[in-house]
Predict the 3D structure of the following.
Amino acid sequence: MEYRISDKLASLKPSAIREIFKSLTNPEIIAFAAGNPAAESFPTEFIQQKAAQILREKPVTALQYSITEGYPELRAAVKKRLSEAFGIDGGDDEVIITSGGQQGLELVCKVMCNEGDVVIAEDPSFIGALNGFRSNGAKVVGVEMESDGMNVGKLEKALRDNPKAKLIYIIPTFHNPMGITTSEEKRREIYRLAKKYGVIILEDNPYGELRFGGKNVPTIKSMDTDGIVAYCGSYSKVLSSGMRIGFLCAPKEIISKAVVAKQVEDVHTNILCQMICESFVTSEFYLPHLEKIRELYRRKCGLMLDGIKNCFPENVEYTSPEGGLFVWCTLPAAAELGEFVASALNEKVAVVPGTAFNCDVDAPSRSFRLNYSTPSDEQIVRGTEILGKILRKYR
Amino acid sequence: MEYRISDKLASLKPSAIREIFKSLTNPEIIAFAAGNPAAESFPTEFIQQKAAQILREKPVTALQYSITEGYPELRAAVKKRLSEAFGIDGGDDEVIITSGGQQGLELVCKVMCNEGDVVIAEDPSFIGALNGFRSNGAKVVGVEMESDGMNVGKLEKALRDNPKAKLIYIIPTFHNPMGITTSEEKRREIYRLAKKYGVIILEDNPYGELRFGGKNVPTIKSMDTDGIVAYCGSYSKVLSSGMRIGFLCAPKEIISKAVVAKQVEDVHTNILCQMICESFVTSEFYLPHLEKIRELYRRKCGLMLDGIKNCFPENVEYTSPEGGLFVWCTLPAAAELGEFVASALNEKVAVVPGTAFNCDVDAPSRSFRLNYSTPSDEQIVRGTEILGKILRKYR
């Protein structure tokens, strides 16, 4: 039987990161390639106690069908935190609980884009989001990145050149894969351009709670007086990634359509874990827990940057994140990325080649992504040494 | 701001059942409108113990990112049960765990259908599936139902008339909303036609474990020697609907694309609950638990059919299910469905009007769906009495 796969899926490749993730079950590999939160960051004991309590006290609520919008108490908790910590007060906004931040991104595209419409994205960007857009038949157009965010001149050119642009997709805070943060000035300029060209901004902020250095920069959503920003968040990095709980905060009209789109994807998000999540984020343990994770990643990121400084040759460029999970390194012009990534894996260090994050899947790259949340401290030290040794070939 | 919603979502209405479900939080309403499993069918104590054990013994596996395909041990358990109880031995098939049966249906359409392609469905059919197809830009074409399944002559006509047909969507066992079962003869004929016209059958079997009367009929997937059947199942009716765990069994090539499509929807299904599910279905308690649920629904269905026999006038037709959750009733020609449904709700009995299940959203209906798994025994008796009183107006 020859299967006639739909056009939008036929051209879609599995995420390189997910494929690498499968190989990470090998404990001999130093996993700089993952995007996993540190295992020690999970509040296991709290989850254990709360799961037992919820199943004892509210078993039917926890196990029966629930509403698509999400557990009302969790939605309220999301709104409260968005207001208190992210300046999002949402006059005309509403919140829906999603099955991870990923689902929020995919739903916004499904709601806003017809096949052939354009999503403008940072280049490089998060591959899961780009593929989510492509799975809806949207075309991704990339805008070059600078150290403080998108090149806004090129963003305006992309908006002018693409009258079918419906979304600007952006990870302004601790960008994946680059680890950089878009400056406040650029955020205001991007907002201005979105408004001028009648395009919705999709602000992805899964790492927003993980600032361990530098100064807070306001979310783009907090500037949204025109109802043009859809904002996605996640509990994957601050509670548990396996639970698949995230949220989307957007103007009511977009949310009401996202509810319909979610209904036909999975009816609602796992309700037992929504309840566990709610009990955690409303407990007295949540803020100290966030502080503990920030401290953990501050240390791990510091270790990695120290390793890079000590072991990498000077012709390798790298970013210095103020939060999040990633450092982005760029090889000198003479180096060949594929060869480097293969050499590293041969020495049992897995990194993600920058090509995996390109908006244009066929474009070349000289960069690679390093993650410091998954490996142990010892692995970070040893892994950067090993990479350094390989990199010295390119001097 | 005027939002330009995508064409496929702009026309999609929220499921009438989901909307009715929201009103069901009113405890005064007798809920014949839901499709919820009986609350007493949840193995609460087992889930409680296993959740604690899993979080104690394998906390990182249960809380960290996992693979899109699903928890390997659960996939193995699904394959074993499909082979032992449903005749599905799957030479070239593979299994993926989905976020409820709903996601499996939506993924198969996303993988197989371009915008404008056609899904042929039983008419009436499960609204969640139909909207899932529409959300992918597919067109739904309905085929008239008889008491033993689709009118196969009309199915062939639909296949002939619609060269862009890619899927036949069918709930052959304890159909939702009608409660009927497609005969083995018709299943073989539907398979033959799908093969003849080069179309994939999407067999939806969420109630397959709930047979409480009559004789077993082989699944269409068990007849699949050509790799043309995709089969969806669910743990919503036998373990917990709130957990959102289902599965899709289909030819490898379809599954590999479904994995990519699922990756961009929710990365993977909640892993803690996948592990709880696996420990339950592989335990000694599972088969006795299934028997207990079947016995429960046998009694509840019997109560409802008794109530109908005793209280409904003879000009109201109804089906007599051998399993599943629903009875389908049809009013005499003189009656007006909308008026009846409103009168019933006024008397605090909620039923779903047949119009909610029509393939053609504007088509009329004289039928309504009754559910016997959600209401208490007492409510079934009282509710059928109340409906009977209203129905006598139409004699």
Remarks:
- The radius of gyration of chain A is 21 Å.
- The mean pLDDT of chain A is 95.
